[in-house]
């Protein structure tokens, strides 16, 4: 490693570890608090399974990774929970990768050490967020190019990294939104649904949101949703047929299964159904929930309609622009970034890596309003 030499790291009493050239050490060590510990907690996928508790192990004493020349070492303060965490733990992202491997898609925290090239753009103590596998850890090495500088470490910023960006880019690239269009958002009070609702409203669309409780319906109304449908108490299909006989122009669909079938049937002529995900199937061994697909070609033809898939990784060229726009909207007060820390969950707020397991369960019970975020508290001069 350029500029690294194996000097004793002092006071650790365990293996010496390479730290970067001491003449630059102000860049590399966190002098505000303790020096960086040599070991940390992190979550590791140790067995492929869509059952998160079976798949994932909390390791207590993993070595803290060292940043290379172009990297930041980030001390994570907030990590985001995503429905696809269980797809990742089941090995559905890359079948060639065998356990053990790191997990967690996104984090936000402080830079505590960095490589020399990275120090051209970042400094110790700076607030950053990132999207990169391995965020379910106390410390994560992030290439400086993949980091996003933040004004401060706030959980609201984290909601934009995956959930906000997914809604922004998919609607912009695939939604063809314009004034007066009718947009149906499924799981509208969830992490990404909340942004689809607000962005469609900003495009002067009429927005219909499905959700599973009256409390969620109240939240949706507060962010501008025109019509909420509680699918536990109302029949979504008949509400749509009665109130929107011409159909809906765009569907932002992340549920799958029966909800997908229903959304497909509700499309207007030339309507678009955007497939963001199908959470209803992720807990199944196949990762899928069956749909009524045999009539699909006929249904699409009859309406000149389309179904479009969206996977964020294929749109990274749009990502920085989308994020800049979303951050600006949030800072101007034009965007609600609802965070759910699990305060209302049975065991209370999601704090510490061990609560990631509960947080995933909470998502799959459909309880969250907004984006589920876990806080990793750090006290100065102590290893957690």
Automatic annotation (TrEMBL):
Which Pfam family is an annotated match for this chain, by its short name? ADH_N
Q: Does the keyword Acetylation apply?
A: yes
The signal peptide here is none
Gene Ontology cellular-component terms listed: mitochondrion
- Record keywords, A-Z: Acetylation, Oxidoreductase
Q: What is its EC number?
A: 1.3.1.48
Q: Which GO terms describe its molecular function?
A: 15-oxoprostaglandin 13-reductase [NAD(P)+] activity; zinc ion binding
Q: Which residues form the Enoyl reductase (ER) domain?
A: 51-374
Q: What family, per the record?
A: Belongs to the zinc-containing alcohol dehydrogenase family. Quinone oxidoreductase subfamily.
PANTHER family the record matches: PROSTAGLANDIN REDUCTASE 3 (PTHR43677:SF3), SHORT-CHAIN DEHYDROGENASE/REDUCTASE (PTHR43677)
Can you name this protein?
15-oxoprostaglandin 13-reductase
Organism this protein belongs to: Strix occidentalis caurina
